[in-house]
Design goal:
The chain is of the alpha+beta class and 563 residues long. Helices cover 20% and strands 35% of the residues. A seven-stranded mixed beta sheet has the order 5-3-1-7-9-11-12, with helices on both faces. Strands 16, 17, 18, 19 and 20 form a five-stranded antiparallel beta sheet that branches. A hairpin with a 4-residue loop joins strand 25 (411-417) and strand 26 (422-427). Helix 1 runs parallel beside helix 7 (213-223). The protein starts with a strand and ends with a helix.
Length: 563
Amino acid sequence: MVLKFVLLVDDDVVPAWQAHAVELLLKSKTAEIVMIVRNGAPQRSPLRPSRWRQLRPRGRGLWQMFERVVARRSLAILPTPLPVALDLVPRLTANQLLGSSRTESFTPDEMEAIRAARPDVIVRFGFGILKGGILTVAPHGVWSFHHGDPSAIRGQPPGFWEIALELPVTGVILQRLSAELDAGAILQRGWFGTIAHSYPRQRDQLYFGAASWIARTSAAILAGTLREEPQKDLGPILRKPDNMQFLWFAWKTAKATAAIHIRSLFQHQDWTVGVIKQPIAEAVHILTDEQQQNNSEIHWHVGEQGAFLADPFPIAAGDGIRIYAERLPWRSGRGDIVALDYSAAQGFTPLRPLWQPPYHCSYPYIFDDGERFWCLPETSEAGEAYLFPITDDGHVAFASGGRVIFPDGLIDPTVIWHDDRYWMFASDPSDSNTVLNIFHAHQLIGPWVPHALNPVKTDIRSARPAGRPFILDGSLIRPAQDCSLRYGGAICLNQIVVLTPNDFLENVWKVIAPRRGRYRHGLHTLSWTGGWTVIDGARLKFQPAEFARALKTKLGMTRKNQR
């Protein structure tokens, strides 16, 4: 079974992100495009004030020049033909649209032609604000993107005001249109980290990042798992900026650009691991209790000269624990896997190198299947996921070469056993901090089946895996990274409410922010075993090797731009 779609476009050549969204919809096998309606009405030319008026403080001359020269570098708006697979789809040209300068509705004859196609869904990629019978002709309504969070900002340009107002995240929604402006039900919602130093990149991530949502919503309808969310609070409607507002935006962009260069050249996250001699339930209470924000409960590793230590995962070892972690030497910039032991009596033992493949590896995720422990490190650079057994004496059999259990690169793969099957949570290399995918299998070696709603989540604040899930008071809790302010800025604890092959729902339960003290500039892994909990933390430190690498990259980009 598939849903029948009608597309409303301004032309057969559309912005690249719209063509991409249609390609993903066709690829999902959940939809059939039964008609394309083209806007053939004469385009109303806006009244253009004189150049003198445009350059006045309240004119919009600066924005217009910026849009022509800079904003149009956005790849998402490049003119792109609709997929060839739609060449034979019936077309309807709407030449006599009715309405005011801001709203449009279709004539009775046009409505009859659209109704005859018997669409289940209409997607608005073009046209203006729609009114009239078109909103109810399809059982599932008219879907439209809003590239901004309506509860914070409405209007245009997309992604602009979030930069000007220094908002850390930018929201996007897919909504079903209603007769009342911005009051339709929300079908999908997501948040992206605001890219304040580049407006074209900011707009690209919003457009391309949400392109899969039409396919996801279609799959949810067919599976009977779609959850609609009413639009509650509405933010102010903002228009294209006047010259004074644009100058403020330009200042914020320049400020963000300078901050990016300063951080990449001089402020480097130097990670290490910490141990809490408490079970995970008590450790979470300690880490989230504002009254206990001191470091007396955390025993930090002093670090290794010339490298950082992160992504710790423990197993029991004697009267303490053995910690597997990523070590990244600053000079090589390539992670490898090491081990170290910890006990209350002896503290930390020296690092022992375990695995140094010819590609970057990290996040040595440890889990058990009821019979033995396994290690599933992140090897996305290799383009495959490898599973390694852990021997009875606690050693990872890296010498075995591992077994390929997934044919693609995954970011921070995290496996659990739940409801008679294995579940793997992982981020996608294309947007590792924002997108969450899920796969499931009845055996560890696979085959792994993609979740029906992949990507199941788009949220830079709570998507990327950040350690071993756990049960607390009967609830399944999934740690995730919050990268909204910086990479690895905090850990979000998500309570998984629904997890089936066709449905997924989790809600934010608590957020663990970095503790005051030396390692207050990052926290992105939380794991546990028995009565022990381990985390990692970051401080900002100048690293000459990282400075040289960043400088070389910037000089290379400068030469490339000059050519």
